[in-house]
Write a structure and sequence with these properties.
By secondary structure, the chain is of the alpha/beta class. The protein contains 6 helices and 11 strands. Strand 2 (30-32) and strand 3 (39-43) form a beta hairpin.
């Protein structure tokens, strides 16, 4: 059975954040609120956890997983970013956006898109997610919590607990999320391209 932590959405309890970080560090998958829908997250370098995350989500290795980082200082380590791209990131993050960028060699090959060598990346705005990233001191890999066959993503923590009780190690109740995913913007070309309209306004990228 999954553990279930009720964490304050604005002032996360450090004791519970530390316990959640330990669960992730030991290979666990955690359902956690973000500034859009709930997400499934695990350690970037844990292949078995990443494979399990993909199985729960029902996606193959062609589906972009998202790299969640605490702030923009970590972006250049995992993605190639020019000055124009960085200005766009600085203007929009943290926030409900996922940007697709060219991955550096620091990103494990299994996590980048197999044919394009790209990675989805975001800096979330949710205090629980940010506290978890800060406690871990490393990025997390994640995906929107939408189970195979479902039309909508999950955003009610009690439903998340009921549906994922035997699939994940921890469910964090940080209050109800939204039913909107992030807005996805592809920044790998000459101009930004809208891949998915979500919670974030694409006008911030000139779209």
């Amino acid at each position: 059975m999954a553990q279930f932590f009720q964490i304050h959405p604005d002032n996360p309890q450090l004791r519970l954040i530390k316990q959640a970080a330990q669960i992730i560090g030991s290979g666990g998958i955690v359902a956690v609120p973000t500034d859009s829908a709930y997400a499934l997250v695990c350690r970037l370098d844990d292949k078995s956890a990443v494979d399990k995350l993909r199985r729960i989500r029902g996606v193959d290795d062609k589906h972009h997983l998202t790299l969640l980082v605490h702030d923009l200082s970590a972006v250049a380590h995992f993605a190639r970013v020019d000055n124009a791209q960085y200005r766009l990131l600085k203007a929009t993050m943290p926030g409900p956006y996922t940007v697709i960028l060219e991955a550096t060699r620091e990103v494990p090959r299994r996590l980048s898109h197999p044919s394009r060598k790209t990675i989805g990346l975001r800096v979330p705005q949710n205090p629980i997610m940010l506290a978890l990233l800060e406690e871990l001191g490393e990025p997390l890999i994640g995906t929107t919590l939408q189970l195979p066959g479902d039309e909508h993503m999950l955003s009610d923590p009690d439903e998340v607990r009921e549906r994922l009780d035997k699939l994940v190690e921890l469910v964090i109740d940080g209050g109800a999320g939204t039913l909107e995913a992030t807005t996805v913007i592809d920044l790998t070309g000459d101009a930004p391209v809208l891949v998915r309209q979500g919670r974030g306004d694409p006008a911030a990228f000139g779209l």
